[in-house]
Amino acid sequence: LAVGAPAGCLLTALCGIWSIYTMQLLAWCVDAAVAAGVTPKSYGELCLHSLGRTGGLLSAGNMLVSQLACCATYLVFIGDNVGQLLGVPKERVMLCVTPFFVLLCWLRDLSMLEPTSAIGTAVLLLALLTVLGEGLASPHEAAPRLASFDPSAVAPFIGVGLFTFTGHDSTVAVVLSMGERKGEYSSILLALATAGVGVILAYALACAVLYGDETQGNILLSVDGGLAAGLKACMSVAVLFSLPIKMFPASQIVEEALFTHDTAAGEGAGEV
């Protein structure tokens, strides 16, 4: 809410509406492809069938860049939290963590990371409640900037808002996994997205009111104490193990670009 509460709420709502609409567009594209006799196995295949080779390549490049940027943001999150805990520069933490991130991306069976997803969700919920609890226990002076409009904060907001779309590649798999019930996707999407945007706005406003001008972009940096330190460490570990899942669509694209042609050539040679 650095941009100001009214403008921040409006921009967040618009970002949420646009995100819902684009996910619905993807669902309609999947339905159209299936009706045409083509069942895309991934977002990349859907783009290739819908937009042709050139459009498919552009979409693949866009996904690769966006997923890399998303993972870079998570590495910054880990650097901020662990760096604050250890009292070291976040850049040093990021450099130390990156090799583990690369090794995790080599996993061929992502189901091995399922427990970390459940644990991460539980830790995230506990962390969010802890932030609210700490704020209620020791409220800070109100932030005058909440009622104002700061144009300089719009650009950072747009940069963060773009990450709303990094999970859209999962839409294809979700729609296809629903089978005969995929017609319910639209209503489920609308219900979840409406609730999600409302909860995000309410939580952001509550934190901004409770922590005032000390509200950090990474809200976990606004709290101290033993419990907060433990949650920061657990959140950092959970985020680290979730990075391969975020990188999976980009990994698919790279593997298809590097090895599909070689495989096809080998099969052709075998037939000869």
Poorly predicted segments: 261-272
Computed over alpha carbons, the radius of gyration is 21 Å
Beta strands, count = 0
Please, what is the average pLDDT? 77
Instruction: Give the proportion of residues in helices.
Output: over 70%
Distance between the termini: 64 Å
Residues in β-strands, percent? under 5%
Supply the helix-strand structural class.
mainly alpha
SSE order, one letter for each helix or strand: HHHHHHHH
Which labels suit this protein?
272 residues; mainly alpha; 0% strand; globular; disordered C terminus
Q: In terms of topology, how is this protein built?
A:
Elements: H1 5-35, H2 43-86, H3 90-104, H4 114-137, H5 154-161, H6 170-177, H7 185-211, H8 226-271
Helix pairs in contact: 1-6, 1-7, 2-3, 2-8, 3-8, 4-7, 4-8
Give your account of this protein's structure.
The protein is mainly α and 272 residues long. Helices cover 75% and strands 0% of the residues. It has helices at residues 5-35, 43-86, 90-104, 114-137, 154-161, 170-177, 185-211, 226-271.
Concise account of the structure shown:
The chain is mostly helical and 272 residues long.
